[in-house]
């Protein structure tokens, strides 16, 4: 399995922004699609966004479209999730994952990073 390390979470006010990063130290995932998922307290983990191996194709759940942007820098083995106009319902632990099937089926997971949006 690929080790994934997320960072960039934190506490932000409603309407604020955060950028999450997901790195694979010492590994390359240039040939794999990648995704972001999230899990709020008391809820199941849900898919948020996916990006193809080239970065040319993206896919989002409706609730984050126009607010979140997934991207990747294959030279840095890093995937990003830019989150704007954050809402309290975005509060969750965010996980990145290697996708084994486009666009929502994950293989390897990271440890997660907490995002808290305060109202």
What do these coordinates show?
The strands form two sheets. Strands 2, 4, 5, 6, 9, 10 and 11 form a seven-stranded mixed sheet that branches. The protein has a four-stranded antiparallel sheet with strand order 1-3-8-7, with no helix packed on it. It has strands spanning 5-7, 10-13, 18-23, 34-39, 46-51, 58-60, 68-73, 78-83, 92-101, 105-109, 113-118. A hairpin with a 4-residue loop joins strand 7 (68-73) and strand 8 (78-83). The protein is an all-beta fold and 119 residues long. Helix content is 0%, strand content 51%. It is built from no helices and eleven strands. The radius of gyration is 13 Å and the shape is globular.
Task: List key phrases describing it.
single chain, 119 residues, mainly beta, four-stranded antiparallel beta sheet, 11 strands, 51% strand, globular
SSE inventory with pairings:
Blueprint: E1 5-7, E2 10-13, E3 18-23, E4 34-39, E5 46-51, E6 58-60, E7 68-73, E8 78-83, E9 92-101, E10 105-109, E11 113-118
Parallel strand pairs: 2-11
Antiparallel strand pairs: 1-3, 3-8, 4-5, 4-9, 5-6, 7-8, 9-10, 9-11
The Rg value, from CA coordinates, equals 13 Å
Mean residue pLDDT:
93
> Could you list the spans in which at least 5 consecutive residues all have pLDDT below 50?
none
Number of helices: 0
- Class derived from helix and strand content: mainly beta
β-strand percent reads: over 45%
Helix content: under 10%
């Amino acid at each position: 399995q690929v080790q994934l390390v997320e960072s960039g979470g934190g506490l932000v006010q409603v309407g604020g922004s955060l950028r999450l990063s997901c790195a694979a130290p010492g590994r390359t995932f240039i040939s794999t699609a990648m995704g972001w998922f999230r899990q709020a307290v008391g809820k199941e983990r849900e898919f948020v966004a996916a990006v193809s191996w080239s970065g040319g194709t993206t896919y989002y759940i409706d609730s984050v479209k126009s607010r979140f942007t997934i991207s990747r820098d294959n030279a840095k083995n890093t995937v990003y999730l830019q989150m704007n106009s954050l809402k309290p319902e975005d509060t969750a632990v965010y996980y990145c994952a290697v996708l084994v099937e486009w666009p929502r089926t994950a293989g390897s997971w990271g440890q997660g990073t907490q995002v808290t949006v305060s109202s």
